[in-house]
Amino acid sequence: MDTNAPAASEQNIAPNPASASQSAQQQVSGGVHDMSPDVGLARPHMPFLASLFKLRFRDMSIIHRLYLCVGISFLLFFIATFAVFFITQSQVDSTLTSRSTLSSVLKQSDHLSDDILVLEDSVHRLLVAQKSSPAQENEVNNVLKKLQTDFATLRTLVQGLDNGQLKADLQNKYFPEISTFLNNMQRTSSELLNCYVGDHDRAVKLAYEQSTSYSIPALYDMRQMINEVGDRLMVKQNATNQVLRWVQYLLFIGLGISLCVIVLTNITIRHSLRHDTGVLIKRLLAMAKGDLSTKVALQAKDEIGSIGRLVDYVVDNTSGTLLMMKNDVDKLYEMVNTNRKSIDATNEAISVQRNTAQNVAEATSEMENSVEKVTEFAKSTLSEVKNAEEASDTCRRTMQDNITTTHTLSDRLRASSEAINKIHMMSSQIESIVKTIADIADQTNLLALNATIESARAGESGRGFAIVADEIRELAIKTAKSTQEVSNTISLLEKAVTNSVNVMAACEGEMDNSLQQSSRANSSIEEIMGIIATISDMSEQIVQSCQMQTSSASEINQSIAHISRLAEDSYDQMSELQSNMHALNDLATNQAAVLGKFQLKQ
Could you tell me how many helices (H) and strands (E) the chain has, helices first? Predict the structure, then answer.
């Protein structure tokens, strides 16, 4: 493919749609085969039943062959399974019936043996009693009746057995002997019941005869019969197990035959398909390498033959389509080169415009950011000024409250100082009163001492008065001590009051100084509040101006951003178009290279 094809004119960049459509229709009608598959390509297979009757298996489809193989295998396996099931079921039913009857015979034989033993026990107890006992006689009669009933039931059960050696032996060998023993036992038991009271020796002889001649032989025959029935039951069980083993063998044989049929059928199908699939694979490998000049040409009537004919049909249509594509790719390559040059020039102009718009947008954005920062700073300053104004107002109110509180405290200090002075004066009065009381106590003590002396002179007649005088003297001493303690306390109180008066005087001086300083601080705060109010007004004006400037800068920035977006969109579209043109150019080159690999029929 020539990569330096001459550029087409601007009229050739956008060809006429009508002429292009007509040209495409002519190329399709002249150079491309009809894409609808021929009805005769996939020739129908011979009917399945016809091929089966004629034994022409190669004319069958592959799926029919597989169906036939699976059908034969399932049929053989079904027949074998049905036969095995029928035989097994018959044998199992017969065995179960025989086992049930034999089990019943064994149980009834055990009952009959138990009845004989019960009869022996009843006769023995009757002889031991040696006197008339209607209850024991009834027991013996009941046992005899039960013996006859159980023996009749045993005969009925044996009648239900299958005809065979066991049934014949039971009926011809054991039953006559057991019947004779039972009749003799009934006879001897009846005689024993008639004579066991009057003739005890004869009763003992009859009991011994019954036990040795009839009961023991009858029990021996019953034991032999039970053993023979058990052996026959074991033989039945072994026969059933043998049948089940044969059933397993037959199932395995049927499964092996089915597997052999499947394997043989698969080998036959594989052998018949090897040649056709080999030819088809060889042709498909050649097609994969780009050789579209030969055909498969299979004559088989199965699916492989149909696939071969469809492959030939696809090769013919693909070859015509590729020829048409090769011509179109040559024309497309020339148009792509012309459009690519025009798009490159347009893309360069848009790139310059986009860069200019980006520079303007960046400058405007920086200006807007600066204005926003100034606005934020002004707002922050205004907020701080308002906070300072509020803090100053709070401080002013606090100072006023402080001044009021200080005046109140000063008044209260003066009142306290006056009260303490009064206490000081009263303590002086109290001290003089205490001195008077001390003098009175001293005089009382002297009087009590004189009274004691006089009572001592009076003798017995003055003893009572002496006791009263002693009490008065002790009371005077206690009064003197209390007066001394009160005097000491008053001295301490006077010292404390003096200190309090001095402290109050100092506090009054400090309170006066505090009032003066608070008044001066309040005046300073009012001046600061006036200055802050002026600053607040100026900050509000600055914020309003910055907000107006920010709005204007934002509108300018939005307009420039819109222009930048338009330029960016145009640049992206042209870049995408340029990329598409390059991709289309690469695609045309690749298509030409790919088409060059095929060997096409000219």
Answer: 11, 0
Supply 454's token pair. 């006089």
Between CA 314 and CA 405 the distance in angstroms is 113
Domain ranges of the chain: 72-270, 316-596
Tens digit of pLDDT for each residue in 480-536? 787 777 777 877 777 777 777 777 677 767 777 776 776 777 777 777 777 777 777
Interatomic CA distance for residues 99 and 233, integer angstroms:
6
Total number of residues shown for the chain: 602
SS3 content of the chain, % helix, strand, coil (to 5): 90, 0, 10
Task: Write the pLDDT tens digit of every residue in 3-35.
Answer: 443 333 333 333 343 443 344 344 433 443 444
pLDDT at 41 over 70: no
Structural contact between residues 182 and 218, judged by C-beta atoms closer than 8 angstroms: yes
Q: Is the C-alpha dihedral spanning 222, 226, 227, 228 positive or negative? A: positive
CA 154 to chain centre: 70
Return the amino acid letter for 213: S
- Name the architecture of domain 316-596: Orthogonal Bundle (1.10)
Backbone angles phi, psi at 163, to 5 degrees: -65, 120
Give the Cα separation of 182 and 491 in Å (integer): 148
pLDDT in tens, 194-206: 776 667 777 777 7
Q: 597 falls in which pLDDT band (50, 70, 90)?
A: low
Tally Cβ neighbours within 10 Å of residue 178: 24
Q: How far apart are the C-alpha atoms of 18 and 22, rounded to whole Å?
A: 6
Which DSSP letter does residue 57 get? G
Separation of alpha carbons 252 and 276, rounded Å: 37
* Beta partners for residue 150, in sequence order: none
Q: Are 389 and 536 in contact (CB under 8 A)?
A: yes
Rounded Cα distance between 469 and 476, Å, is: 10
Q: Domain 72-270's class?
A: mainly alpha
pTM exceeds cut of 0.90 = no
